[in-house]
Amino acid sequence: MSAVAAGTVARRPALRARPWWPWLRKAFWLAFFALLGYLLVSQARSIAWDEVAQTLRALPLPVLLAAGGLAFASHLLYSTFDLLGRRAVGHCLPAPQVMLVTFISYAFNLNMGALVGGVASRYRLYGRLGLDEMQVTRVMAVSMVTNWLGYLLLGGLAFALFPLALPAEWDISDAVLQIAGGLLAAVALGYVAACAFSRKRSLALRGQTFTLPSGRTALLQLAMSCLNWSLIAGAIFVLLQGQVDYVTVLTVLLLAAVAGVVTHVPAGLGVLEAVFVALLGTQIAPAQLIGTLLAYRALYYLAPLALAVLCFLFLEIRHKAPARNA
Fold it and tell me: Which residues contact 320 (CB under 8 A, 6 or more apart)?
């Protein structure tokens, strides 16, 4: 362990020994739950439910079932990302527990942003299952790398090989987009090459040591992530009922994803729709496009969020039950 890491670990027991530490911890989680409730209510109020209902009623049942199936497959696949982290860290939590924590965190992350969703919920849930902070951090790092690795490759190939006609006000030429695409793909492939051939297998960052996985594991990360992004695009493509080709839908989704990250809007609310309308508004009526994307949000964001909240509350109640009985 590095000197920085040792110092960090040494400071934590000292903080926890302070008399105000339990109160600070309780205040943080009370604020977390208050923010969770606020975000749930504000998100629900921001959705035009009448438009969602109208769009859903207009969509054929086989289309809804197919899109819902693809959304389910994507969430199920993402739930296995932390299993790669389990292997890297070496903890022994059962796979179903790991997948449940990942599912809850992913649904919160999608709807509430990474800090409130993917980070805070993982620390709380994994902490109660016995993992320490360093273990949770390493698990999250593996999942984050896995998620964005596929984005880099798919986005790079899409931007380089299938550049879209961007709006003039974006002031981005095809050449710039193609160069950016080539760089993105190079980063993804460079990561796989480093994992396969690099002699230096570890990296120290802020007191923590991260070890490169094997080349086989890196390829598995790449394949899982590419499949997940492809499933998400597939859900939107199915809802659009073939009005736009799949590669175009995937490319627009990838552009919208990075726009959502840059703007830090929870769930990318409005960003996703704005990018799709800007790029596809000449091919599909904007009202129809927005209605379809609202249906997509209902299937991919809101339905999993509702289930994740129930699962989160169940785990909270189950955790407190033994304490009351003790």
Answer: none
Dist CA 165 CA 251 (whole Å): 11
Q: Let me know the angle formed at the C-alpha of 28 by 26 and 29, rounded to the nearest 5 degrees.
A: 70
**Could you give the CA distance from residue 262 to residue 268 in angstroms, rounded to a whole number?**
10
242-249, long-range: CB < 8 A, 24+ apart: 243/283, 243/284, 244/280, 244/283, 244/284, 247/158, 247/162, 248/162, 248/164, 248/280
Write the DSSP symbol of residue 163.
-
Task: Answer for the pair 217, 141: CB distance below 8 angstroms, yes or no.
Answer: no
Measured between alpha carbons, how far is 191 from 180 in angstroms, rounded to an integer? 17
Does residue 289 contact residue 276 with C-beta atoms inside 8 Å? Answer: yes
Percent of the residues in the chain that have a pLDDT greater than 90, as a whole number: 41
- pLDDT tens-digit profile of 264-312? 555 555 678 888 888 888 888 887 888 889 889 989 999 999 999 999 9
Q: Rounded to two decimals, what is the model's pTM?
A: 0.81
